[in-house]
Amino acid sequence: MVNPKRRDFLVAASVFGATAATVSARAQTYGNPDLPPEGAINAANNPATRRTPIGPQNTALADQFPSAGSPPATDVDGLPMFWASFNNAHKRIQNGGWARQVTKADFAISTTISGVNMHLSAGGIRELHWHLTAEWSIMTRGRCRITTMDAEGRASVDDVEEGDLWYFPAGLPHSLQGLGPDGCEFVLAFDDGAQSENNTLLLSEFIAHIPPEILAKNFNVPPDAFKTIPLSSKWIFQGQEPGTLAADRAAAHVVPGAAPVIFHLSRSKPRHSTAGGTIQIADSENFPISKTVAAALVTVKPGGMREIHWHPNADEWQYWMKGKGRMTIFDNGPKAVTMDFNPGDVGYVKKSQGHYIENTGTGDLVFLEIFRTDRYEEVSLSNWLTHLPPDLVAQHLNIPASTIKRFPRGGPGIVPI
Question: Which of 92, 104, 259, 318 is the most buried (most CB within 10 A)?
């Protein structure tokens, strides 16, 4: 005879086992790998679970992040926030232009790159300065005149326009000035997440903190020559629009020999090109001066996808320029989080974390991938799996080898539509 208490225990255990088996079976079904099951799909039979929040909320903000409010069932929370935006960054406005930035101070995950979005009016000047870090930039609108000097003392004066890059190595002095008719706008990337546009080494502050007699001795002019120098920084100020490029080059004693500091990224031949979009690369191989920053300009057509991949040599800092997209990042744990992005947003993916990006809008999606490294490197999931014995992959994924042989080989970069 079975003890009543033991009988109750066995019944409870059998019920628990059946329930666990049911949950386990559900958890292992297509598109639902985890326990307990997550996602709205697993609450389909309980509408109350999926009720829209009725407490205080900012619907304008929530509407920007549909994947946070209703993430895929395959998502598992646990990653640090990898979204930021210039759209809600403080804008420092001065006569001649403005700037706003995203640094590690307010975007903790971004340890390798900080970014600045800046506008200069026609004639507006970002005063002569230099940094403890290297400066990489892409022009997003208008035209700008840039000046710099290399370590050999050779001057450069160049005009840049939309789609062009520039690179100033750490410690080398430079200036930026907007050109007509409407000035310019650009995004700077520094190779240190802590770098702020507010802690640059400025000519005005340096001169103001040197005794007049020392300035006189250094420049071989009377001390009175410096009696009207500014005693506070200019940072950005309105100046006169410069003359012709040829005239400025002659006045600056520009001579051939300095390494080119500009690169026409938007005109470069794509590394990847499919019906789904293009990827254009700028790194030390085709832009030799850029020793600490590599970049990719990615265009994804409507319905297309930046393929599943990761970068083995550096973290990825992103600047979203056009369109709408959705990115999912995978890390060990497992952790998988999906986030939505819009123009002006900034994303960040740690080195070797798998990720993919979908175009969720009706037009082209355009964004930058920026890395603190001299060389662009990428591992394509499909390229890896198609360079293994198909039977080996089949045993891992329970997929027929014949299906695996259909995977795209060579890493398309952008999945064709």
Answer: 318
